[in-house]
Amino acid sequence: MRDALERLAAERYVWLSTSHPEHGPHQVPLWFLWDGRAVWMCAGAASPTARNVRAEPRVRLTLPDASDVVLLQGEAECFPDREVPADAARAFADRFGWDPRGGEDSFLYPRVVPGTVRAWHGEPELRGRVVVRDGSRLE
Asked: What pLDDT does 135 receive?
């Protein structure tokens, strides 16, 4: 579990998988911020990602290393850029050197508190890969 938490704090990109009842699945890499409890991302308010998480908030997140897997699953809570908590927006801007709230375009900040986290290093660790279930850490 420590490895997964360290990666969540250190990585810059996460693959976000969404789905829409009419448009089907959609997957995109996004910058993300781990605040110790939740993943914060940012997407254009008119993007397929924003459309999908509004229609179907159940999402899956994957860190970008197929030999050191971390999969998170949860429901996205969406914050328009004008309503995102200031501390989250500031932390996101500090991490990436970009504040989406300052431009002409509108953005959406999806926040995901993982209900399930699966992590493993290659095939030998497939058993016991669930490290969080229903929001509670397993050990």
From this structure: 77
